[in-house]
Amino acid sequence: MKDSARWDERYQTATASAEPARILLENSHLLPQQGRVLDLACGLGTNSLFLAEQGLHVSAWDFSSVAIGKLGAVAETCGLFVTAEVRDVVAQPPEPQSFDAIVVIRFLERSLIPHLIAALSPGGVIFYQTFVLEALDKTIGPKDPLFRLAQNELLELFSPLNLLFYREDGRVGDISRGVRNEAMLVARKSPDADSG
Ligand SMILES: C[S@@+](CC[C@H](N)C(=O)[O-])C[C@H]1O[C@@H](n2cnc3c(N)ncnc32)[C@H](O)[C@@H]1O
After folding, report:
1. Are 188 and 161 within 8 A, CB to CB?
2. Mean pLDDT value of segment 125-149
3. Mean pLDDT within 33-40
């Protein structure tokens, strides 16, 4: 079975998360005040809808036609404008300098990272949140360790950008509190960057 078909099957019955991703809620002040934003591998699109509510022009891409269909319907009901597109983002990554912000939540495809950096406009911002290898609860997130981040890996992957926010609690201190299963990064492309 194709990967997209597996996700389609899941999304037949899955319901969208009630809340946008933590990285967006805690760092919404770092979003551009206007412009084009991409929610890459958006799933049912809770984050896309949140971004549209901020007045941004949202493109939401996912290879699951079921998820994109459901997102389109919810956006219409809510009167929010989201350009939701069925798209394999690995086969068709975003064009260079095409977005002022890119949001990636719970999706990891390392070969895409240089394309994401290139796809930011000068001064553009990336928001990235996904699962770590060192998670406390491995019942959520991918079973294959390849799809989990090593320690500090987001920092390395986005080292060409200027860091605005990073969090990775690991297992340090009081593990009954904190963010223990995911790492989060917000970083900005130099406003003086002229390409890539
Ligand atoms: C764990 S879900 C996360 C969805 C969403 N970002 C969220 O946080 O709710 C991972 C998503 O990646 C999508 N996906 C996986 N590989 C993809 C690809 N090559 N192109 C586009 N979407 C892909 C799946 O369809 C799924 O919706």
Report:
1. yes
2. 94
3. 97
Pairing of strands 57-62, 82-86: parallel
pLDDT at 194: 73
What secondary structure does DSSP assign to the chain, as a single string? --HHHHHHHHHHH----SS--HHHHHHGGGS-SSSEEEEET-TT-HHHHHHHHTT-EEEEEES-HHHHHHHHHHHHHHT--EEEEE--TTTSPPPTT-EEEEEEES---GGGHHHHHHHEEEEEEEEEEEEBTT-S-TTSS-SSGGGSBPTTHHHHHTTTSEEEEEE--TT-S-TTSS--SEEEEEEE--TT----
Please name the residue whose Cα sits nearest to atom 10 of ligand 1.
107
Q: Are the beta carbons of 182 and 110 closer than 8 angstroms?
A: no
Of 63, 74, 116, the one to substitute when testing ligand 1's pocket (max ligand atoms within 8 A of C-beta) is 63
Per-domain boundaries in the chain: 3-7+17-188
Question: Model pTM greater than 0.90?
Answer: yes
According to the CATH classification, is domain 3-7+17-188 in 3.40.50.300? no
Q: With beta carbons less than 8 A apart as the criterion, state whether 57 and 84 touch.
A: no
What pLDDT does 196 receive? 44
Choice from 7, 9, 87 to test ligand 1 binding pocket (greatest atom count within 8 A of CB): 7
